[in-house]
Amino acid sequence: MAQGREFYVDPDLCTECGDCIKVLPQAFRTVEDEQVAEVYNFELTETLLPKLQEIMTDCPGHAILWKDK
Predict the structure, then answer these.
(1) What is the pLDDT of residues 36-49, one digit of tens each?
(2) With contact defined as beta carbons under 8 Å apart, do 12 and 64 qualify?
(3) Which end of the chain is less packed: N or C, by CB atoms within 10 Å?
(4) Where do the structural domains in the chain lie, given as residue ranges?
């Protein structure tokens, strides 16, 4: 992952589809008492980064974004 950057889910854009949780349960989970996803683990191995990029691209709400730390 690019140093100094983290990924996050914008809850206003999240469509509650759950695809990110299905593809990368190592990084995403459902927010308690809601249906939107959230990031709970930013430390992904190099082998999981292509999956992260894939789900960022395929997210129907384009809700998974990069932010500077």
Answers:
(1) 999 999 999 999 99
(2) no
(3) C
(4) 5-68
